[in-house]
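ugh finaly. both done.
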Amino acid sequence: MRKPYFKSNPGDPAPLSVTVERKVRFDEVDMMGIVWHGRYAGYFEDARVAMGDSVGLGYMNYCDNGVVTPIKQLHLDYHKPLTHDELFTTEALMHWSDAARINMEFIIRNEANEVTTTGYSVQLMLDLQGEVLLAAPPFHQAVMAKWRGGELG
């Protein structure tokens, strides 16, 4: 059992989850036929985009509201390699945060449903001048209210 990446507080809604599936392409592996370590951030990104799009917190939702969401932290733990032509899934779990940030956990599983890679990212919310927002913008708060009310998930 691994230690959770994000602390959960009493009363926080359960994480939101989305899973994407794909196959390892030839251009993603090294000469040994295993996925090059640098590709995993892209796999996380595929799931992060699917999550954002599914709940109305996609990149364009932020841009349309004058907000950018750069990565503050990215962490990966490698457990088992993926190989060329292998099917795999990437699950994204968005964890609740009262702050103007996005906490995302990722779990990659191979065809045998074995966990191969885990990790997380933290994104901050900034205005277009690069200033950190102290509170999430209204559109984000509206999505959070739906989440807390059980309308998402």
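ok and the 2nd:
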Amino acid sequence: MANDPGGRERLLALGVRNVPVVSKGENYVFGQNLEDVAEFVGLQGTGHTPLPPDQLIRKWVLVLRALQRYVRQMPTERINENVIENRQRSIRLLAYHAFRIAEAYLESAIDGKEYAVQHANVPPQDGTHLTGAEIADYGEGVIGRLQKWWDQVPDQSLSVKIKTYYGMQPMAMVFERSTWHSAQHARQLIHVLERFGIEPDGRLTPEDLAGLPLPERLFE
């Protein structure tokens, strides 16, 4: 919608309040499940084979550790600047959100809370998480809870279904989506550091991200 002035109005006319969405006329499907999108547009699947959860957990923790490094490098005097010019979202809020994705997942996986789009977008409380170091400390707690959950989850195939705002979905699918979602924001923070003339501390490599269905572009 950031690049399409009429996009929001067309979505509202469909009765849609969340994105991404693929629509044809008055019919639409949420874009979170790519297999649903493929079927909607007449394709026989996406051709993507999801990584098993035991590989995804390693990649997700790797990504979250990278996010900690990158946010610690952010100059405090610039952390409230926008990530990109055409969207009102600060570096601080994006970095916090990248960790909040995992916290929101855990609230659904452990507590049974419906996975809603607003769930991962809960901002930090006023006056908190004002520096990169504070956000990285928050991330440390999230990583600890994520690893503890994984170590104790009875079914590591994550085949059970959970309630989401786009219907009942296999936990494994939400797990994969959450993993690449954090990874996409890590890529964006690398871009911000480069823009500031700062060499990212330990770049994520193509091998680190292999198998994740990441968007081709940084800001989709």
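summary for the 2nd one i guess: The chain has seven helices and four strands.
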